[in-house]
Specification:
mainly beta, 4-stranded mixed β-sheet, 2 helices, 11% helix
């Protein structure tokens, strides 16, 4: 993948799809990775985990349960080329990242540019927490 400055329209697109996450409880922080390739712009998007700080569960990472408005994302495209749910329930968890066991891909065109989205239920393993929740209830964005 080549390095390229993210254009304004793509930044606005990222903001728009980030708003489609709805945590079932509490708050969450959206994380993403994006890059430009020969095929166009690619983005992997997810909700960051919450790290508990202090108390008996200090350091425990909690994924966030959520729903995601797919219709709202599809409406962002000028042309929709495909939408797929990729599920690998038969994969051994110890050899796969949990975020790769089930994800949605959406491809299409925005302002003449090809765009590929991968919507993950969990963040990639090397990504740290999105939020730290202290035992006194205080939240800290990471």
């Amino acid at each position: 993948m080549s390095s390229q400055i993210i254009p304004n329209w793509f930044s606005q697109f990222i903001d728009a799809i980030s708003e489609r996450f709805e945590p079932f409880s509490g708050v969450a922080r959206v994380g993403y990775e994006c890059a430009f390739s020969e095929g166009g712009w690619e983005i992997s998007i997810f909700l960051g985990e919450t790290e508990l700080v202090g108390g008996a569960d200090d350091g425990r990472m909690l994924p966030v349960n959520f729903r995601f408005d797919l219709t709202g994302v599809v409406q962002q495209f000028d042309q929709l080329d495909g939408m797929h749910w990729n599920a690998f329930p038969n994969s051994p968890v110890e050899t796969e990242q949990p975020s790769d066991l089930s994800f949605v891909t959406i491809t299409g065109t925005i302002q003449g540019e090809k765009v590929l989205i991968q919507l993950h239920a969990t963040p990639p393993n090397p990504v740290g927490p999105g939020i730290r929740q202290h035992s006194d209830g205080r939240l800290e964005l990471v």
